[in-house]
Design goal:
The chain is α/β, with parallel strands linked by helices. The protein has a domain at 145-291 and 321-340: Dihydrodipicolinate Reductase, domain 2, CATH 3.30.360.10. 32% of the residues lie in helices and 24% in strands. α1 (31-40) crosses α9. The longest helix is centred in the C-terminal third of the chain and has 20 residues, at 321-340.
Length: 359
């Protein structure tokens, strides 16, 4: 019997039927990835806004020279020709801006992590629903080639009944020293780790997490303020999940994902998140699909592309803010568990412990 490799469409969705003008609010360094992805998809960014006008001008000139620059989002949101806004500001000010965009009748792609307060996030979800607009969260990791392949492979049943997921991340995150990220108390579990918690929440969306245990520690040689070493265990009734972050690996960066099921095992391994080799082991075959693309910037293309396609098809986007609240519940529980030294039930912690960002 000849084995046939499953046809998994892991590529970012292409919004060919939804050509809408986009406004970008917040023009920090990460938006270079946003704008690169949008330009590569031939999307139109008609306006950019930042309280630092020079920063907005720099991004405009580099990517969309014909776009208009604003320093006040109210003026951008007043434009009737802009129907989608990408809100890429820090989370301390983001909910208010997202709310203004919803009230202006705009569809919204919010930067991750979505909110610092889950109840505030739920309120924004309800406001978007009442206004008839889509509200999505830029969980771009879902569209990294390796994780997209894993999520779709599992959803199609090719791994059987899932049993475990193990994520081991070794890299050097000390670059945040003397940046705004250095002020985040839990830069690893929160700002960085939300990608992993989101993938876990998506992978096991049909299962109820029972508790989360976590811990953090400082590397003896790190210069960044927050601890760069962290780990978390998530227990479900019949599934075990673990994440190990060594954010101060100075030699030999490595990123490994292993997801096991009754019918197969998914493995992704490589020296960076943009350089991964995927292998799938089954009883009838072992195969290595040749995946194209990289997290940066295909993940950002996926986040905006999925929102635009969802608008065109009038359906909830896969990364809808309503579903993303489950990802935040895992994340907030991990932060609280690390601080308290005891397991925490996801959902019990409604606000992020400590400061999420420095203003």
């Amino acid at each position: 019997m000849t084995f046939s490799t499953p046809a998994i469409d892991y590529q970012p969705p292409r919004p060919d039927r939804c050509r809408r003008k986009i406004g970008l609010i917040g023009c920090g360094s990460i938006t270079e990835s946003h704008l690169t992805a949008y330009r590569d998809m031939n999307l139109e960014v008609a306006a950019l806004c930042d309280i630092d006008r020079d920063r907005a001008i720099a991004q405009r000139d580099a990517f969309y020279p014909d776009a208009t620059v604003y320093t006040d989002q109210t003026a951008l949101l007043a434009r009737e020709d802009i129907s989608v806004v990408d809100v890429a500001t820090p989370p301390t000010v983001r909910p208010e801006i997202v709310g203004e965009a919803i009230d202006a009748g705009k569809h919204v792609l919010s930067q991750k992590p979505f909110v610092l307060d889950i109840d505030e996030g739920r309120d924004l979800v309800e406001r978007a629903s009442d206004a008839g607009v889509k509200l999505a969260v830029n969980q771009n990791g879902r569209w990294s080639p390796q994780w997209r392949y894993c999520l779709d492979l599992a959803a199609a049943g090719h791994l059987g009944t899932l049993q475990t997921a193990r994520f081991t991340e070794n890299w050097n995150h000390d670059w945040i020293t003397e940046t705004g990220f250095d002020g985040i108390d839990h830069a690893i579990l929160y700002d960085y780790g939300i990608h992993w918690f989101d993938v876990i929440a998506t992978l096991f969306a049909d299962h109820e997490p029972q508790w989360v245990a976590a811990s953090t520690a400082r590397s003896p040689t790190q210069t960044a303020s927050p601890p760069l070493l962290a780990q978390a265990i998530i227990a479900y009734d019949d599934i075990q999940v673990s994440v190990c972050f060594d954010g101060h690996t100075c030699h030999g960066e490595r990123h490994v994902t292993v997801v096991t099921g009754t019918d197969g095992t998914f493995v992704s391994d490589g020296p960076s998140l943009n350089d991964q080799t995927v292998t799938v082991h089954r009883a009838d075959a072992t195969y290595t699909p040749e995946l194209s693309g990289q997290w940066f910037t295909d993940g950002f293309a996926g986040a905006m592309g999925e929102l635009l396609v969802a608008i065109a098809e009038d359906r909830p986007p896969e990364h809808a803010a309503a579903a993303n609240l489950a990802s935040l519940e895992l994340c907030f529980a991990a932060v609280a568990a690390a601080e308290e030294g005891t397991p925490v039930v996801p959902g019990d912690v409604r606000k992020l412990r400590g400061s999420g960002w420095t203003d």
